[in-house]
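Bug: token stream looks shifted between consecutive jobs. Job 1:
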Amino acid sequence: MTGVVVHDARKVDASGLVDEFWLVTDGDRIVATGSGTGWHDAARAPGAEVVDAGGHWLTPGFLDLHCHGGGGHPYDDGPEEMLAALATHRAHGTTRALVSHVANPLASLRESLGVVADLAAVDSMVLGSHLEGPFLARERRGAHDDAFLREPGPEMVEELIGAARGTLRTATIAPELPNALEAIGVLIEAGVVVGIGHTAADYEQARRAFEVGARLLVHAFNAMNGIHHRAPGPVMAAIENPEVTLELILDGLHVHPSVAGLLFREAPGRVALVTDAMAAAGASDGDYRLGGLNVSVRDGLAVLSGTSTIAGSTLTQDAALRNAITLVGLDPVTAVTALTQTPAKALGEGHRFGRLHTGYAADAVLVDHEWRVRRVLADGHLL
């Protein structure tokens, strides 16, 4: 057996904390775990790579359901840019991710979905596509180009599903649009997890979408009606449905930490931290593009140029973890679960990703006591 041995870690995942934790990998799977000195025999195996964690935290690899780029590279500029952006996020602990697509001409979206399908076949980090545009409400479009928004006709939806060749994993829809509920049914039939977002839907419309099978609330509180005492809105509809996972961008800018804390209290185990990162994540301030729109980044805040409209984030998942613990005050198990097991379960992949258990993917992140990444184990390979 040739694999990786990590020892003397403080393990934290959805099942809790374990001191003096060790794990052994073989290929792309974890094949043994424990605490104490049981790792010694595996460390003597020919070719074993041994990592002394030195008492630092060891978490499962992070999973990002919603991301548009990083390291100065947007996802929608072709496979080379995608790979460069993915490498940036992998260095920050994201070992599995969806590639999110903003609203673009339908031909461009079909091409992008095909590129991701090709990439998913050769890069284990890529779990598939998230189609964020084009089925969004114009008044809640955020950083999506108004010219490319569409109502979700069944044939159009089928074309996009076909272009992804089985790799369309999630799709965002504003449920108040004409034919939206029918489109949700078509997507679910194809095995796509449907989220509602960029929507003007009220509480009843959102609740109905969840009743017919939508299972995600896309970046909760952003690009949707908020919670009002006489108009509860989509967030309350999502909180009340135990089958719904709520995405949260925890950069301290999109949602106030006190409101983030409320979400974790009201929907325990169902909040998935996402980056919604654009190209400037892991890069410098400056001028960028998101789809066909210009974006200006100053002090880490990305907005459509010349406006105050937020245009994605400059977040990486390790920063989201630090914010969850230091800004919101979450305990480490809750915070790590929101980056690992919760998004994995939302994709129906909770049996493969998101825990440091035998049989799970050999994905792990070693972070120091300030929650900064020291080493990344991705698909059995140390980075």
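Job 2, same session, no restart:
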Amino acid sequence: VVEDRATGDTHPATLTIRGQEPFGLPTSVDDEVLMACLAATKKDGFRNRKIHIKPRKMLIDMKWKTDGPSYAKLRRALDRYSTVSVVSEGAYWHKGKKKPVRDVVGIIDRWQASGRDPITGLPHDAFFVWGDFMWESFKSGNLRNIDYDFWLNLESAASRRIYRFLGKQFYSRSTLSFGLKQYAVNKLGMSSRNPNGDIKRTLAKAHSELKEKGLCSAEFTGHGKNNKVVYTSLSSGLETN
């Protein structure tokens, strides 16, 4: 369910991510690459959809090793983001049109690697091109001003995904409540087969880290199907552009 920011009315919405063989769907490791791409785009001042990178430098920025297996992970992530599609039925808010829209979009339109790094033997140069929907979102100001270094130093994948998600949600409210199962599966990418107890244990570790670092506090409420997780912002660090 999505809330109309102007009227407060709600409407049903779905968001489906479709992968292609042989690459499949993005993983939590791929999230790190996507964030590095966002950081490179921010460093460029959001001037161009086409961003030139040095694979060795990106690996170093992500605190990965500069070897073949690490580059293979980087390559797989960019392959996946270049082939995945996102089907939105009213789940995206169009800032210019001021209403939810129906869209089938790509994340990265194209990426290419070339040359040979004399130190690592990896490709020396590369570039990627954001999909037009992503670029439109950047230009419309829908991308939060994420503190990439802070995000990079969060210990768990759950902490990182929660940090990214909550930053978009705290735009007008300091307290947020979500149905536990729907939130964990649809927003954080956890398996729908996980029982509530396992979900809570995973989230509790992330919540402790985020509270310790002054971002938000969290508590679980309700029972069974009425289980919810409630977040309260503790920091101006969770801001939107």
